[in-house]
Amino acid sequence: MRIQSLNSDEAVLAELGRRLARTRLERNISQAQLGEEAGVSRATVERLEAGEPVKSTGLIRVLRALDLLEALDRLVPEPLPSPVERLKMRGRERQRARGGSSQTRPSAKPWRWGEEGPGS
Question: 20, 39, 53, 93: which has the highest count of C-beta atoms within 10 A?
Answer without folding.
Answer: 20
